[in-house]
Write a structure and sequence with these properties.
Length: 173
């Protein structure tokens, strides 16, 4: 399995407007009425199924949807199908990264990562293990971007990543 681009074909008002827009793996349509309600995504694994992804918090468990400018589409958290092909992937800045498959070292597409790393480092509270999501919210940044910055800081021995239940949580060393 390879990573692929998320191909946002259209923004429509209802599911019945999708028609044949979803043809290839990674094709996506946003259903928007006032605000984004759903993303329909042709499964990136190639199984041919269309995955409905809820973006509307009022309708239950919802993914966060980031869209704008050069950022491309991002969803948070990851999408993990519990039926059918059971694909697990993240959508990050217009790319679909399949988990448990091929790891792409060039996957990072964070603009000005050094600046983000600096801001993450400065705003991280000292002495506590916290989730990168909380810091992303505080900074108004995409969680995957902040996670990328945290991984860099961990490799540089500035941060320590938690283990077990505290995986994906970090504290200053
Ligand atoms: Zn699939």
């Amino acid at each position: 399995m390879k990573n692929l681009d998320l191909n946002l074909k259209a923004v429509v008002e209802s599911r019945s407007d999708i028609g044949t827009l979803l043809s290839k793996p990674g094709d996506a349509v946003i259903i928007q009425r006032g605000q984004p309600r759903w993303m329909m995504l042709k499964c990136p694994c190639g199984c041919g199924e269309d995955i409905p992804i809820n973006l509307d918090r009022r309708a239950g468990k919802a993914w966060r949807y980031y869209q704008g400018g050069d950022k491309g589409v991002t969803l948070y958290p990851s999408v993990w199908r519990d039926t059918g092909c059971e694909s697990h992937f993240i959508v990050w800045r217009g790319r679909i990264l399949l988990m448990g498959g091929y790891v792409d070292d060039d996957a990072s597409s964070v603009p000005d990562l050094p600046d983000l790393i600096r801001r993450v480092r400065m705003s991280w509270p000292s002495g506590v293990m916290i989730s990168y999501v909380d810091v992303a919210d505080k900074l108004g940044e995409i969680p995957w971007d902040v996670l990328e910055a945290c991984r860099h800081l961990t490799r540089e021995d500035v941060f320590v990543e938690g283990s077990g239940q505290q995986r994906a949580m970090f504290r200053r060393r």
